[in-house]
Each structure stands twice: as C-alpha cells, then as structure tokens.
C-alpha cells in the first residue's frame, strides 16, 4: 500500500553518529528500496517536538517514527489526539493503542563487546567512556562490565562519564582526555558509548596505539586498525521495519524489545577490523552470543533495578 | 605517583593550550580597551574554518591559515562595531558568538552534509605530535627521562607555539613601540590621539592580533587536539580564557599560570571521576565538572578581589559628541 | 588681511566647526606673529578649546584654512600638527597615568619599533631640555604619583621633545598656585626668547595683562576682538567677553556669626588605594558665616566635602553636628546627613550633582527622592515634583523653564542653577558648596554669589570650596588654606591677600624642601 | 536658546527598523549562500509565525519566555549591570516551580498552586542571581564573569538533581513525573474555548498574561517609584547616586534579585504551562536571547514586548521554515538572531549618526 511515512529526530539531530544517524540510514535504505519518500523533521526544543509531531499527524503522515527517549511525553500527548495515526517510538515506552514502542537490549550487545575487550586486553584493564550520565548509558556500562568479567573475573573496568548534560554526547576533546587518562591507568581497550564524544576516544586510541570499541552504528571505519569492533544497535532496522510493516499492513502497536535474538543488537565484524579478530576470538564470540540467546548467560539489565548488581 | 603527576601535567598542557592562546588573544584586545567576550565565537569559527579547509585541501597548515582568516574576519566585525561605530563591546561579542554558533553548523551542513560536522581528519590534515630527539632513548632515565619524553616531547606544534607566544607577548606588550601604544590606548586613548597616533588604528591592530591568536586556538581544537569540527566544540573555553585573563590581571605570565591552573583542574577532574576519595567517597560527576567554574567564582571573590583592568576598557572612544 | 609683514607663525582664516546642534566656532580669523605670546580669552563654552584643538589637529574644522609661517597647511590629525611644529598642553592633561614620565614623553615619538634605544636617546634629550628651560622632573616617576604642577611640566616637555615651535596652552594655570603660575610664565618668556610662539588661553585677565603681547576675545563661537595687550585693560576685556558691562565685585555686610554648628576634629581619610587624602583636618563652622577653603585643586578639598556630606566614610576623627557625633565607627551616609539638614552643592555637577540623562524635574529632587513631599504611598508624586520644579525654574531664572527638558541639554550655568536651587531651597542649616561658579558666566556668577550671601545673612553656616582665589576672597568671612590634605593655615578674610594665600597654598615654608625632593 | 532636536520617531522607529532590515538583508545573503531562495524562505517564516491561529499561539508562547528574560536583562541594564546569567536564573527558577508543583499537585487546587509556584519561580531565580550580585556589590567581582559561571553551575546542579533525586523511577531520560492537572497552568485555548473562541492548539498559556503583567510592574517600578528612581540613578551615574545617599551596593543586589526573579518566571511558562514536568535544558537559550530583546526593545516594556514577539516569530517561523524546507536547519534562525543582535545592538550607531545629523541639519536650517 501507499504510505506517507515520517520521522522525527530528537534534538541531537540526524547526524549524531549515534542512533539518530542509524535511523537516518534505515530510512535512506527504505526510500531506495521502495521509492517512498520519508518526511523528516528535526525539532530543536521541547515545544517543537510536539508541534512537529502534531503537524505531521494533521497532514496525515503515518506511521510517524519518533527517535529517542526524550520524545515519550510528546508522542503520548499527540497520539491521544490522533488515534488514527500510527506512531513508533524508539528507545521509549508508551502504552497506547496506536503507539508502537521499540526498545533494545543494549546490555546484551555491551556484554558481547565486553567479552571481546577482555580477550584483547593484555593488561586485564579496560575502559568505558559513557556520554551523558543517564541510566541508559549506565546500562551500556553495566553490560560491558559483565562481559569483561565473564572472561576475566578479576579484570578492572574503569568507567567514566563524559558529563551530565546533552553536551556530553558531543565533546570529543573530553572524550580523548578521558580515554588518555584510562590508558595511563593501564587500560588498553576502551568502549565508548558516548555519541560524538566517541570520535575523540577513537582518536586517542589511534594516537596511543590502543584499541577502541564503537557504538550504535558500525563505526569500525572511523579509525581502521585500532577499532576493535562496534556495538551496533540496529535502530536503522527498527525504523525500516516499522515502515515496511506499515506498507504491508502488518504494523502493530505494543512493545517490541529487540535483543540479540531479534538481531536488534550485535557486534560488528567487517573488513576494517577483521585483522584484529582471530578465529578463536570469533568462535568464542559466537558461543557467547548463542548462550545469551538461549538463556545460558543472563545479562543483568541496569535499568531493571537501577543497580549493577549481577 | 610521580608518573601519574607527569601524565596529569602532560594532559594539563594539552588542555591549557587553547585557553592560553585565547587568553593571550584577549590580552591584546583588552589591553587596547576592547572587551572581548567573543573569544568563544572566534575560536569556534576558527575551529570550523580549520577543519573545513583541512578536509578540503588535506593540509593542516592550510586549515590553520583559513582558521586565522575566519577568526580575523570576525575580529574585524567586532572592531567595526566597537571601534568604528562605538558599539557596546559585550553586545557585539554576544552577537558574534551567536552568529558563529549558528553559521558553523549551517555552513557545515551545506558543505559536508554531516549534520554540521566536518569529515574526520586524517594524516596531513591534522597536526601531529612532534617527538623530540632521543625521547625514546632516555625515557627510562629516572625523573628527567619521564619529564623529557612524556611531558615535554610528543605535543603538536601548536602547543609549543602557545608556550612561545607567552614570552613573545610579554616582549611585544612591554618592550616595543606597538606595546607602548597598545597599553596607552587602553588606559587613555585621548593621550594617544593627541600624541598623533590613531586610536582606531592601534585598536584595529590589537583586534587583528586577537583574531590571529583565536584562529590558532580554534585550529588547535579541530585539527590538533581533535580530528574534525563538531557543533559547539569550543564548549565555553572562550569564557574560561576570559576568566583566566582577569585572574592574570591582563599580564602574560600570570595569565599563563591561570590557564595552566584551569587546565590542571580539568585534567585532574578527568582522573578524579569515579575515584573514591578518602573520607569523602565518590564525588558526583557534576561536582567535579563544576569545579573550575566554582573556583573561578571563589578566586574572583576572594583571591584577587577587584580586578582592575585597563582604565579605558569597554568605553568607546568619543572625540566629538554629535 | 594683507601679507606684507613677515609671515605669521599662525594664520587662521574662516575656521568653522559645528558639533551637532552647537556651532562651536564660526568663521574665525586669527593672526599670531612669530615669537609672541598671544592670549585668547572668552567665557566658558565660547569655543576656545575647540579652536585650539582644530589647530592641533584633534578636531577637523568644517571649513577654513590654517597657515603656518605663511604656508597653508593641511592638518588632519595631531600627527600632522606635530610635524609642522605645533605642540599643545590640553586643558585636561593628556597623560597615561600609570606610565612613567619617560614613557609618556616618548609616546608617539618612540624612535624605532623596539623601545630600548628610543628610551635611552629620549633620556639624553630630556636632560638637555630640562636644563635649558629649568623644567626638572624625575623622568622615571609614574605620572599619577606626581602633583599636577609637575604633570603639567611633563606636558610641556612632551611638546618640546617633539620640537614644537608653536606651543598652545589651554588654561594652564587653573590647577596651579600663583607661584607655580609665575614659574610657568617665566618658562614661557624664555621659550619666547628662543623664538617659540605661544598661544595662551586663560580666564584670568590678570595673567593676560601681565604676560601676553596680544589678546583675542571670543564670544559664542566667534572672534569678536583683537587687542594689543599694552593698549587695553581689565574692564574693557571683561566687557568684550560678556558683551555688556559687568560688575566684578560682591557686595556684602560683615558677618554676624553666632554659635558653632559644626565642628570637625582630626578628620582623616584614606582612599581606596590606601593613600591618605585628608590629614587630621580640624575646624569649626559657625552659623551666619561663610568659611572659605582655599587651595590648589587636588589638595583634599573634594575629600573634605565628601567626608562632611557623608559620601565618603571617615577613616578617623570626629564630626560634631546637630547633636550627633560622627566617627569612623558611627558613620552617617549622605541621606542621613541630608536628613540632618546639611545640603551639598558638589564641585562637579556632571559627575555628581546631576544625572544628565534625567529630565530636569527628576534631577531637581536628586538626594531628596525619599522625601515625603515627592512620594505617595507606593508611587512617586510626579505632580508635586513637577509643580515645584516649575516654581523654582521661575524663581531662579532657569532657561529654558522646561521641567521635561533633559538635564544634559541645559547649558552649564543653568545646570548649576538647578543644583544650587535644589540645595538652597531645602533651607539647610549647613550648606557645603564646591566651585559654585565653575563654568558659569559672569552674569550668573553675580546671582549665585548674592544667593550665598543671602543664606548666610539668614543665619546659616556655609562652607565654600573654590580654587578661584578671587571668589574665595570676595565671599568668605574666614579662610582656611589646605595643602596636601592638611590645613596649613587660617586667615580672616580682611587680612587675606593673594600673595599670602598663594604662598600658603604652595606650602611655601616647605617649598625649598619640596623642590629638593622632586 | 532654541535646540534642534531629532524627532522621537526617528530614534524609536526609523533607526531600529533600518537595523532590522539590514539584519534581514544579510540573513538573505546567508540564504543565498546556501542555495535557498530568501523570498520563499521569508514567506514560510512569516506564514509560520503569523499565518494561522496556532502559529500565532506558538509565536506568543516563545515571546512569553523572551519577555521574561528581556525584562530581566533590561532591569539590570537600567542599573548599569550586565546580567548574562538569565539562562541559569531561568533554569533554577524552573526548578523552583517544578519542586512546588511536585510537592503540592496532589494536595492543592490550581488556585493555590499557581501563585505559590509563581512566587517559587521568582524566588529561586532571584536566589540564583543573588550570589553574583553580592559578589559584584561587596567584592567587586565582575558580574559578567560570575553570571556566566553561574550559568554553568546551574546546569550542572540541575543535572545532578534531576539524575539523582528528581528523575521518575524507570524513566530513561532525566525527567520528573508529570504533574497532576491541578498544577497545570491553563492553556489559553482552553480558556477561550468556553467563550466560543477557537484560537488553535498551541502551548500558549496564562503565563503570557503574567508576562504582560510583568511589563506593567517593570514600568511602574522603574519610572514611578523612588526605588526605580534610585535604580536609574545608579545605572546612569553611580557617583551621583552616592552623592544622593543611595547605597549602590544595595541597589545592585536588589535589582539583580528582581532581574533573577523575572528570569525565573520562564520556569512558570515552561514547566507549569507547557511541559508539566521538570526536565533538563528547557531554557534553550532564552536567557541569551533576552539580551537581544532588551536591546532591541530599547529597555522599555513596550519595546520589549514588540521585540519579544519579533524573536518569538523568528523561533516559530524558523521552525516552520525548517519543517517545510528540510535542508534548512533551525540553526539558521540562530544566525538571524545573531545578526539582529549585531545590527540593532552592536552596530546601532551605524546609521544613527548620519540620520540624526540629517534631521538636525534639517531642523537647524
Ligand atoms: N567634543 C565635543 N562634542 C560636542 N560638543 C562639544 C565638544 N567640545 C565642545 N563642545 C561644545 O562646543 C562649545 C565650545 O566648547 P569649548 O570647549 O571650545 O569652549 P571653551 O571656550 O574652551 O570653554 P571653557 O572655558 O569652558 O573651556 C560648547 O558649547 C561645548 O558644549
Ligand atoms: N553635553 C551636551 N549635550 C547636549 N547638549 C549640550 C551639551 N553641552 C551643551 N549643550 C548645549 O549647548 C548649549 C551651549 O552649552 P554651553 O555649556 O556651552 O553653554 P554656555 O554658553 O556656556 O552657557 P552658560 O553660560 O549657561 O554655561 C547649551 O544650551 C546646551 O543645550
Ligand atoms: Mg576650554
Ligand atoms: Mg557654559
């Protein structure tokens, strides 16, 4: 069927090198595959989020994908006023008959890259650089820590948050300083879950000959040779699927949780990092992945109880 | 312990560099009587121009040249407003900061379609570290080895430039004809005018030097310390540089130390994060983050008390009332 | 104006200059023979400084030409003026206060991009100039530490260092003691002997008569008369300046002082830099008298007024007034002093006495803004303010009598009337009054002096600070002289003469020592 | 003596108008530079801001914030102080509003919460301005620097509080729980609909009326009370103020308290009027924009209202523009704002001299 899809990015904008950009990649692919144009909108403040959602709904766009946890309240308000329009929200949960909530098991993906980090660390010390200090980012950190400890129980995981405002996702300078400080404390692999801040982390790793792990989209290409892998969160796929389902008439409201088994999160292996991954490592990763999928390994979700006790 | 200290100092140098450059920039401007709250914007504009040019031409030096051009251009706008048209210095600075914040992203988006960022820079498009001769060899000599190989060696050229600029600034401001006129024009422009020197010309020159230094600071941000331009990447450094300038009472060497202090706090904060301090426990991220700002306020209030700047600062030079 | 005589040092033709709505100079012509001292007089605002600034290239004239030694020159800025040999000592000194004397002198004539050589060369040259003209001053002293007299020498040296052949002095004696002024005139004479041409602006007719060769008179932007000094006299000059006959004397009866209303004991004041500006000043002020405070400006008179009126805090000592004892630990601020019926006409009406951005009716209540008369419960009582202001404007002949006119747009004399009316009409017990006639023309001076005497005759106490010895001597019943923050002597008015007061103002008995120090 | 005068309309009308036109002209060049048709863009901008009910609502909603911050900047200006801390004061003001709403929403009716929250916002905003004010008045610390620092500190403080204390359990982003409706300031469209008036759905709420009231208070305070008299004296001539027995330090502190209170009221509009929960970054640069509003408004309440509406229109029209032409980002609006500040603030004298000269000459002739 012919659909009029739209997407509303959150305030970080569609080129945040993080999930907004992932969504952007997803819809670009969708447009290429189907020829259907997707209406994009980039509000810059709270009021505009609601305003743009409302305007899109008024003009009959559906489904409307809202990107990011920040949009929850606006989506919930607008969805109430436009019961005939389909809304999909990524990274947020809203219980309404015309809203689809898509969330990810970031802890599982982080666990995976933690395992790989531990296997690559010669010092048994690894680092984690988070962006803004919010539960979502702690969730990454906590999953990562579990993965590391799974391989090397007595390993040290140095965790730092870049800051406490949205700017923390966009401060590569600080990212590079944090990474360098972690290196100086002995870390030799660093996982950055910090949006644009990560660029600085990867750069620092490159400059010091250490390893870094990317996040959200596959960032292996950014510093080939020192990017160990990336923890990919397939928001692109989520957006793509929402539109695809709508086109096929299969779109359904409700909660959609995308974990390892659904292909929602994963680790990235490509030409850029294949030189760093030995066959043993690859095998181990596959095994761990399988164990998580079949439930042999249970990864604790920080957000379930706001602690990292596992 | 010693090694940690060296590493923190090493980081201090890196973090202080843009502050030093910007604060010296401010020193020239403010010594001439022109308040410059637009250091931030000029740095940001410089950072963007540097990264954009470096990305296009593949050369960090060309990037630096463009950074200087852009920043001087902004400085001239400031001069045009404050010197030629006797505008309010702070308002002009705020305007420049606002324009640059929007324009860098707008142009970046139009030119590179990466959400206002420039492409990541690699190779010659970045300033890379300079390793001093024999740094490797003597790295293991106790104390000196570490200082030489870690602290002194291994920075990029702009860092060394910043530190060379401090004595250079001192010499220019206090030992040259231009410096004499610069100081005079910030204290009593009428005296300068009646001595047959054009007040506007001296101030324009000061503002241009300010632009050059801010441009270098900006280039450092995007092509040396980082590898590309990001929205709002100056992140308040211009304001911190201004605070350092006031601490240092508009004198090059004390200003240097103020910048180093801020840099040091930043470097320590990075390392203090998540560390449980004896007796205090783990300090919240926000508390550490806020430290330089609180300290600035405390120092301003207690330590240096009333900072008395150049006497004619911020006052437009009016010869004839219309 | 033919050119048969040897060329003039300066010849001006048709100089006009307008500032916004003010025509400061109008079609001015002037010829100054080489090697002469030429005086220029005129009321405040007549346009003298403007004219000199045009010659010096500080302002550009709207029209007209300037010739130096018979050759027309194009002076667009001070640099050009310096090049053709013009030097100027401005009414308000043009010195960088935190620079040394040497730095100030070489500014603009540094002799090279690097200071070092220029400075040492300048040091040599200055030594020569100092001895040649008896202009000694410590070249390494910081200017703000120097007394005004020496600062002025620095200005003169600055001009000479640049090789000035024509020297313009704009009211040079306003800040000098009579003795210092005498010294200045000796210097000018010796300059003249060296062939230097001097243009001298002053308000003091006495100085004109004593030291100039020719004199020109300006009035309201125009050059109204030229005289050979030898052929004219005080009365003629005064009349030329004002445009009508003037009386130069105050008429008053002898004072009938009664009890002491205010007594000051050992008042000391340290400024924010920690400099002692008042040194143990003591005096008594009686009802029904005018106590004059004489002194060169900058010797503590301003601080004394500030301390008495509560604007500045006492550092030590005590003031007895209206049954209150005011000390450093029990201070009273300006509002409280006003409540005790002490009124104050400040020395500088622009800086202190008025808010030039306010409408006249608002400026007319400054200091009394909290008074019940002008206030309702919440809002100010504009009607009362307006009607009172209108009344006063008629009573005091303020022109124009428009309460809504911005204070800035009144002329200096009318601004002063607004201030004095405000303070006097509060019917104070004590009136502190500083420089009551500074910047006021001769006609208005008369009126203000009458008012002050009237207040005295009504039994009020008046403390008068003025740098004009003539004014002090004409009005005061008793005269105190201040020097360097201290009271150096007291003279009854009838025994005061210019010479004694002048010597006291210069702290003459210490002059030898002081000179040695400098 | 007759005085040639420049007609009032030249100073308050013609010159600001020319400055704005110039700012827009240069903005047009920026549009051209990025390959957009400036006229088309202007069309969207104007339509978005004024073309339909809800658009106007949004414009006025933004204007509400800008009136508050404009008044804040302006009143400090009147006392010769440059309050760059409006951003932080608004932030903390919002915190005050939010805390009161969170505390009282289940136990009190709107009629009680609303005044308390308004006071709360004002008091919190004022408190945040107090420290820089105190330091300026008593220790001589430069208020521009300290208020800038306090913006940074406010933002860290808010994050700390939101993340550690105020965040709703289970919520991903640091936002508090949504208030109950008893703590919602009514939307104007809800107020008007019983009267049969449909003014379109927009976030415009009663805080707008509060802002207008603020302007009246400002006007009365500054020009018609002795307090305002003292404040203006301090602002135009501090020496005269000391002469008049006015305690400069006290006035400095008071005026900054009021300035902070005005800024704090942004919180009423944002937190109580629109978001209905406490969140981060709701100040979104209004504090800085207030500088431009105050300047353009010539530090007069009427001017501030007009300037705030102009800037509100830029925000709203700009959003519309960015929505309709996706290749235009909202950042371009920031550029336009900056240009307006430049031309009508920093370069306000560019034409002034020439134009005034022209009228003076005409009047003199
Ligand atoms: N820079 C200026 N801008 C505007 N108007 C000025 C300026 N300087 C002087 N004026 C005006 O020009 C007129 C002449 O002033 P000028 O200073 O030349 O007078 P003056 O004769 O030197 O007076 P005084 O005896 O007080 O020094 C006055 O009305 C004054 O207000
Ligand atoms: N700073 C100023 N701003 C605006 N107008 C001014 C200013 N100074 C002077 N004027 C105007 O210029 C005119 C001349 O002023 P000036 O002070 O020179 O008067 P004056 O001739 O000296 O009168 P008086 O003898 O009363 O002092 C005044 O009427 C006043 O309106
Ligand atoms: Mg004069
Ligand atoms: Mg006058």
Automatic annotation (TrEMBL), chain B:
A single Gene Ontology MF term assigned here is:
transmembrane transporter activity
Name the Pfam families on file: BPD_transp_2
Gene Ontology CC annotations of this record: plasma membrane
Annotated TM spans? 7-28, 48-77, 89-109, 157-174, 253-270
Question: What keywords does the record list, in alphabetical order?
Answer: Cell membrane, Membrane, Transmembrane, Transmembrane helix
- InterPro entries named among the record's database cross-references: ABC_transp_permease (IPR001851)
Q: Where in the cell is it found?
A: Cell inner membrane
Which domain of life does this protein belong to? Bacteria
**Topology with respect to the bilayer:** Multi-pass membrane protein
Which residues lie in coiled coils?
none
Q: What broad class describes the main subcellular location of this protein?
A: membrane
Protein name stated in the entry = ABC transporter permease
From TrEMBL, chain C:
ABC transporter domain residues = 10-245, 262-509
Question: Which Pfam family is one of this chain's hits?
Answer: ABC_tran
Subcellular location per the Swiss-Prot or TrEMBL entry: Cell membrane
Stored InterPro entries:
AAA+_ATPase, ABC_carbohydrate_import_ATPase, ABC_transporter-like_ATP-bd, ABC_transporter-like_CS, P-loop_NTPase
Q: Which GO terms describe its molecular function?
A: ATP binding; ATP hydrolysis activity
UniProt-listed CDD domains: ABC_Carb_Monos_I, ABC_Carb_Monos_II
Q: Which UniProt keywords apply?
A: ATP-binding, Cell membrane, Membrane, Nucleotide-binding, Repeat, Sugar transport, Translocase, Transport
What's its membrane topology?
A: Peripheral membrane protein
Gene3D superfamilies attached to this UniProt entry: P-loop containing nucleotide triphosphate hydrolases (3.40.50.300)
Q: Which PANTHER family match?
A: CARBOHYDRATE TRANSPORT ATP-BINDING PROTEIN MG119-RELATED, GUANOSINE IMPORT ATP-BINDING PROTEIN NUPO
| Protein name listed in UniProt | Heme ABC transporter ATP-binding protein
Q: Which organism is it from?
A: Marinomonas piezotolerans
From TrEMBL, chain D:
TM helices/strands, residue ranges: 12-35, 55-77, 89-105, 111-131, 143-163, 204-223, 251-272, 278-297, 304-326, 332-351
Q: What superkingdom heads the lineage?
A: Bacteria
- Which GO molecular-function terms appear in the entry? transmembrane transporter activity
Q: Which Pfam families does this UniProt record tie to the protein?
A: BPD_transp_2 (PF02653)
Q: A cellular component term (GO) from this record?
A: plasma membrane
**What InterPro entries does UniProt report for this protein, alphabetically?**
ABC_transp_permease
> Which residue windows are coiled coil?
none
Q: Where in the cell is it found?
A: Cell inner membrane
Q: Which UniProt keywords apply?
A: Cell membrane, Membrane, Transmembrane, Transmembrane helix
Tell me how this protein sits in the membrane.
Multi-pass membrane protein
Main localisation, per the record?
A: membrane
The protein, known as = ABC transporter permease
């Amino acid at each position: 069927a012919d659909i009029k899809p739209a997407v509303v990015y959150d305030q970080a904008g569609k080129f945040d090198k993080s999930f907004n950009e992932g969504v952007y990649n997803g819809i670009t692919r969708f447009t290429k595959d189907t020829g259907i144009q997707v209406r994009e909108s980039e509000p810059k403040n709270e009021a505009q989020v609601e305003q743009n959602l409302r305007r899109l709904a008024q003009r009959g766009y559906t489904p409307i994908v809202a990107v990011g946890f920040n949009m929850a309240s606006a989506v919930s308000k607008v969805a109430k006023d436009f019961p005939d329009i389909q809304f999909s929200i990524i990274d947020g949960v809203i219980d309404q008959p015309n809203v689809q909530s898509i969330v990810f098991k970031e802890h599982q993906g982080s666990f995976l890259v933690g395992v790989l980090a531990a296997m690559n660390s010669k010092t048994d010390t690894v680092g984690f650089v988070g962006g803004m200090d919010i539960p979502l980012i702690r969730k990454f950190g906590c999953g990562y820590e579990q993965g590391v400890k799974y391989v090397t129980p007595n390993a040290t995981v140095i965790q730092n948050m870049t800051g406490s405002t949205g700017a923390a996702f966009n401060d590569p300078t600080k990212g590079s300083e944090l990474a360098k400080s972690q290196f100086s404390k002995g870390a030799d692999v660093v996982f950055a879950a910090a949006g644009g801040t990560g660029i600085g982390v990867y750069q620092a790793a490159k400059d010091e000959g250490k390893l870094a792990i990317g996040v959200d989209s596959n960032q292996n290409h950014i510093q080939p040779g020192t990017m160990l892998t990336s923890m990919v969160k397939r928001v692109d796929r989520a957006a793509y699927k929402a539109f695809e389902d709508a086109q096929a008439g299969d779109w359904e409201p409700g909660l959609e949780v995308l974990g390892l088994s659904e292909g929602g999160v994963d680790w990235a292996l490509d030409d850029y990092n294949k030189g760093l991954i030995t066959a043993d490592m690859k095998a181990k990763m596959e095994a761990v992945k399988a164990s998580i999928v079949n439930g042999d390994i249970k990864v604790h979700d920080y957000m379930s109880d706001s602690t990292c006790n596992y | 312990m010693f090694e940690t200290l060296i590493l923190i100092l090493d980081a201090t140098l890196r973090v202080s560099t843009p502050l030093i450059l910007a604060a010296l920039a401010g020193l020239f401007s403010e010594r001439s009587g022109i308040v410059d709250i637009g250091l931030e914007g000029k740095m940001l504009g410089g950072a963007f121009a540097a990264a954009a040019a470096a990305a296009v031409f593949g050369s960090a030096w060309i990037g630096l040249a463009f950074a200087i051009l852009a920043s001087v251009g902004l400085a001239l706008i400031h001069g045009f407003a404050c010197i030629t048209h006797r505008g309010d210095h702070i308002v002009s600075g705020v305007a420049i900061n606002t324009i640059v914040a929007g324009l860098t992203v707008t142009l970046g988006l139009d030119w590179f379609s990466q959400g206002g960022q420039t492409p990541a820079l690699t190779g010659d498009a970045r300033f890379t570290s300079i390793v001093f001769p024999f740094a490797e060899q003597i790295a293991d000599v106790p104390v000196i080895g570490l200082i030489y190989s870690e602290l002194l060696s291994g920075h990029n050229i702009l860092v060394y430039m910043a530190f060379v600029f401090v004595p250079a600034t001192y010499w220019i401001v206090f030992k040259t004809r231009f410096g004499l006129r610069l100081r005079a024009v910030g204290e009593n422009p009428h005296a300068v005018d009646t001595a047959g020197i054009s007040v506007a010309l001296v101030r324009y020159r000061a503002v241009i030097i300010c632009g050059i230094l801010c441009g270098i600071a900006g280039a450092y941000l995007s092509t040396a310390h980082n590898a590309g331009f990001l929205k709002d990447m100056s992140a308040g450094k211009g304001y911190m540089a201004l605070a350092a300038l006031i601490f240092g009472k508009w004198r090059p060497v004390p200003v240097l130390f103020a910048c180093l202090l801020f840099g040091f706090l930043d470097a320590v904060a990075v390392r203090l994060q998540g560390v449980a301090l004896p007796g205090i426990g783990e300090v919240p991220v926000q508390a550490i983050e806020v430290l330089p700002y609180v300290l600035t306020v405390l120092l301003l209030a207690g330590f240096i008390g009333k900072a008395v700047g150049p006497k004619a600062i911020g006052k437009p030079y009016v010869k004839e009332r219309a | 104006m033919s050119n048969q005589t040897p060329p003039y040092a300066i010849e001006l033709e048709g100089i006009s200059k307008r500032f916004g709505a003010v025509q400061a100079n109008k079609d001015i012509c002037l010829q100054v023979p080489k090697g002469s001292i030429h005086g220029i007089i005129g009321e405040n605002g007549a346009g003298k400084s403007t004219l000199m600034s045009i010659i010096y290239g500080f302002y550009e004239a709207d029209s007209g030409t300037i010739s130096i030694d018979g050759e027309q020159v194009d002076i667009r800025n001070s640099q050009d003026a310096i090049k053709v040999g013009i030097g100027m000592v401005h009414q308000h000194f043009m010195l960088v206060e935190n620079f040394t004397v040497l730095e100030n002198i070489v500014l603009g004539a540094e002799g090279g991009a690097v200071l070092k050589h220029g400075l040492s060369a300048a040091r040599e040259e200055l030594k020569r100039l100092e001895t040649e003209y008896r202009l000694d001053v410590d070249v390494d002293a910081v200017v703000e530490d120097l007394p005004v007299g020496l600062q002025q020498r620095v200005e003169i040296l600055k001009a000479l260092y640049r090789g000035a052949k024509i020297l313009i002095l704009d009211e040079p004696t306003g800040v000098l003691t009579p003795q210092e002024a005498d010294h200045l005139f000796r210097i000018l004479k010796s300059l003249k002997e060296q062939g230097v041409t001097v243009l001298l602006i002053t308000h003091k007719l006495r100085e004109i008569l004593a030291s100039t060769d020719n004199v020109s008179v300006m009035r309201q932007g125009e050059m109204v008369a030229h005289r050979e000094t030898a052929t004219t006299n005080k009365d003629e000059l005064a009349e030329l300046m004002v445009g009508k006959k003037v009386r130069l004397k105050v008429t008053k009866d002898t004072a009938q002082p009664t009890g002491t209303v205010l007594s000051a004991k050992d008042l000391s004041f340290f400024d924010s830099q920690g400099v002692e500006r008042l040194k143990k000043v003591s005096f008594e002020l009686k009802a029904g008298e005018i106590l004059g405070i004489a002194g060169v400006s900058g010797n503590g008179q301003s601080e004394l007024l500030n301390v008495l009126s509560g604007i500045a805090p006492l550092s030590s000592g005590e003031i007895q007034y209206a049954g209150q004892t005011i000390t450093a630990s029990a201070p009273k601020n300006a509002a409280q002093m006003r409540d005790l019926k002490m009124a104050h006409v400040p020395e500088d009406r622009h800086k202190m006495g008025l808010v030039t951005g306010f409408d006249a009716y608002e400026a007319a209540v400054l200091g009394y803004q909290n008074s019940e008369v002008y206030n309702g419960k919440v809002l100010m009582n504009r009607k009362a303010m307006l009607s009172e202001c209108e009344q006063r404007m008629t009573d005091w002949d303020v022109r124009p009598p428009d309460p809504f006119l911005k204070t800035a747009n009144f002329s200096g004399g009318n601004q002063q009337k607004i201030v004095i009316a405000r303070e006097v009409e509060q019917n104070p017990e004590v009136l502190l009054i500083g420089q009551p006639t500074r910047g006021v023309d001769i006609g208005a001076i008369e009126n203000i002096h009458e008012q002050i005497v009237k207040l005295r005759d009504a039994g009020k106490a008046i403390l008068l600070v003025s740098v004009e010895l003539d004014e002090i001597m004409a009005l005061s019943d008793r005269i105190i002289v201040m020097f360097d923050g201290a009271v150096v002597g007291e003279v009854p008015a009838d025994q005061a003469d210019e010479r004694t007061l002048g010597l006291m103002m210069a702290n003459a008995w210490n002059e030898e020592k002081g000179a040695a120090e400098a | 003596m007759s005085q040639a005068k420049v007609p009032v309309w030249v100073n308050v009308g013609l010159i600001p108008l020319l400055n704005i036109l110039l700012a827009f002209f240069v903005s047009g060049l920026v549009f051209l530079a990025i390959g957009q048709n400036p006229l088309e863009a202007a069309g969207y901008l104007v339509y978005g801001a004024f073309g339909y009910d809800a658009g106007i609502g949004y414009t006025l909603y933004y204007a509400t914030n800008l009136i508050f911050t404009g008044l804040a900047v302006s009143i400090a200006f009147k006392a010769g102080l440059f309050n760059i801390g409006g951003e932080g004061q608004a932030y903390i003001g919002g915190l005050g509003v939010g805390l009161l709403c969170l505390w009282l929403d289940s136990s009190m009716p709107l009629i009680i919460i609303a005044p308390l929250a308004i006071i709360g916002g004002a008091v919190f905003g004022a408190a945040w301005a107090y420290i820089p004010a105190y330091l300026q008045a008593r220790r001589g610390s430069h208020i521009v620097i300290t208020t800038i620092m306090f913006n940074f500190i406010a933002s860290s403080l808010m994050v700390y509080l939101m993340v550690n204390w105020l965040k709703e359990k289970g919520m991903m982003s640091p936002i508090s729980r949504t208030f109950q409706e008893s703590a919602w300031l009514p939307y104007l469209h809800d107020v008007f609909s019983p009267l049969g008036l449909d003014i379109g759905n927009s976030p415009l709420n009663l805080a707008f009326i509060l802002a207008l009231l603020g302007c009246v208070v400002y006007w009365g305070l500054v020009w018609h009370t002795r307090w305002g008299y003292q404040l203006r004296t301090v602002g135009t001539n501090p020496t005269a103020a000391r002469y008049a027995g006015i305690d400069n330090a006290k006035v400095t502190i008071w005026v900054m308290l009021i300035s902070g209170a005005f800024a704090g009221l942004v919180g009423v509009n944002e937190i109580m009027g629109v978001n209905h929960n406490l969140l981060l970054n709701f100040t979104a640069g209004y504090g800085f924009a207030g500088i431009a509003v105050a300047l353009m408004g010539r530090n007069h309440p009427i001017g501030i209202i007009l300037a705030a509406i102009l800037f509100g229109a830029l925000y709203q029209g700009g959003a519309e523009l960015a929505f309709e032409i996706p290749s235009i980002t909202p950042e371009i609006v920031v550029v336009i704002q900056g240009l307006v500040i430049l031309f009508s603030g920093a370069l306000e004298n560019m034409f002034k001299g020439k134009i005034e000269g022209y009228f003076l000459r005409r009047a003199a002739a």
